């Protein structure tokens, strides 16, 4: 989860290792965690970009919510009601390199991690690249 201000600068970030959770479960939990973090710091307007079409579709009531994430999506809807304006849209993972990097980072430890300052030089460069619209190029091995 990465929270940025209107300039694209990080104001909070976090990662969790959800261990054996499926991708859809991990993405929905991450969205819920991000909304909770946004509420804790008093965000009143929020643009959410997620790369899991099932989670975004379930949130936007465009698909039938999978039973595995039904309770989490209900939690998300309750959290969103506490924020003045929320926009939720799908974005390809390659277009959000910082989130992709942070999600891989989350798999490197157990538990959760959060920060309000970006000390990692690699992530700092990725955030700069994200801000100017540079995308991640994935190559086959």
How many separate domains?
1
What is the typical, i.e. mean, pLDDT? 84
Instruction: Please give the CATH class.
Output: Alpha Beta
Give the beta-strand count. Answer: 5
Question: Beta-sheet strand percentage?
Answer: 15-25%
CATH fold-type name = Nucleotidyltransferase, domain 5
pLDDT < 50 stretches: none
Provide a count of the helices. 5
Largest beta sheet: strand ordering: 1-2-5
Query: Helix fraction?
Result: 40-55%
The radius of gyration is 15 Å
Could you state the order of secondary-structure elements as H and E?
EEHEHHEHEH
CATH architecture: 2-Layer Sandwich
Q: Cα distance, first to last residue? A: 28 Å
Basic shape? globular
Could you describe the largest sheet, including whether it forms a barrel? 3 strands, antiparallel
**Class inferred from helices and paired strands:** alpha+beta
Structural commentary:
This protein is α+β, with helices and mostly antiparallel strands. The chain has a single domain (2-131), classed as Ribonuclease H-like superfamily/Ribonuclease H (Nucleotidyltransferase, domain 5, 2-Layer Sandwich), CATH 3.30.420.10. Helices cover 40% and strands 20% of the residues. It has five helices and five strands, in the order ββαβααβαβα. The chain has helices at residues 23-40, 53-59, 70-80, 97-106, 121-131; strands spanning 2-4, 10-17, 45-50, 85-90, 111-115. The protein has a three-stranded antiparallel β-sheet with strand order 1-2-5, sandwiched between helices. Strands 3-4 form a two-stranded parallel ribbon. It starts with a strand and ends in a 10-residue tail after the last helix. The model has no long low-confidence stretch (mean pLDDT 84).
């Amino acid at each position: 989860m990465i929270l940025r201000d209107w300039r694209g600068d990080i104001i909070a970030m976090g990662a969790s290792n959800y261990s054996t959770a499926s991708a859809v479960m991990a993405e929905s939990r991450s969205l819920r965690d991000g909304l909770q973090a946004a509420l804790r710091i008093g965000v009143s307007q929020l643009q959410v970009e997620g790369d899991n079409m099932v989670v975004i579709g379930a949130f936007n009531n465009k698909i039938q919510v999978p039973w595995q994430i039904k309770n989490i999506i209900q939690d998300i809807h309750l959290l969103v009601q506490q924020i003045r304006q929320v926009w939720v849209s799908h974005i390809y993972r390659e277009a959000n390199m910082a989130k992709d990097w942070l999600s891989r980072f989350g798999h490197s430890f157990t538990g959760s991690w959060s920060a309000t300052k970006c000390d990692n030089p690699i992530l700092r460069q990725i955030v700069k690249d994200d801000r100017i619209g540079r995308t991640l190029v994935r190559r086959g091995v």
